[in-house]
Amino acid sequence: MSENKALARRWFEEVWNSGRAAAVDEMLAPTAVVRGLGADLVGPAAFKQFHAAYREAFPDVRLRVDAVVEENDVLAVRWSGQGTHQGNTLGFAATGMPCRFTGVTFMRVENGKFVEGWNVFDELGMLRQLGVTNLPPAP
């Protein structure tokens, strides 16, 4: 396994599954830009605010890396996750409901740290499972 692929797996295990915010500083470059989670997040401090809010909303979140593809300095990570919505930090009250979600994250690496990230995940599916949208469930 390449160093970059190992770094991506470490990101998901330490940052998300273990909730170790200090790992963000270790793996995310000071000027890194993370897109797709709302407004662009620049640098570790901005990402850690998002991370704290998400982990408070889903304290038992578990993300599984399903596949990693690498080309040059860019990784594509397909992942799946689950958690129980227990916190009020995502803009709506805790529902206490479990949900599952999937996503893809592209990560660009320079000098052993992530410098760019692009995230796409099924947020609508998550909101439907939590009952916080009036859209009908997907068929």
What string gives the helices and strands in order? Answer: HHEEHEEEEH
Helical content class: 25-40%
Mean pLDDT: 95
Mind telling me which CATH architecture this is?
Roll
How much beta, percentage-wise? 35-45%
* Shape label: globular
The main sheet comes to: 6 strands, mixed
Backbone structural class: alpha+beta
Total DSSP E strands: 6
Report on this model:
The protein is globular. It has a six-stranded mixed β-sheet with strand order 2-1-6-5-4-3. The chain has a single domain, classed as Roll (Nuclear Transport Factor 2, Chain: A), CATH 3.10.450.50. It has helices at 3-17, 22-27, 43-57, 123-130; strands at 28-35, 41-42, 62-71, 74-84, 98-110, 113-121. Helix content is 32%, strand content 38%. The protein is an alpha+beta fold and 139 residues long.
Secondary structure blueprint with pairings:
Layout: H1 3-17, H2 22-27, E1 28-35, E2 41-42, H3 43-57, E3 62-71, E4 74-84, E5 98-110, E6 113-121, H4 123-130
Parallel strand pairs: 1-6
Antiparallel strand pairs: 1-2, 3-4, 4-5, 5-6
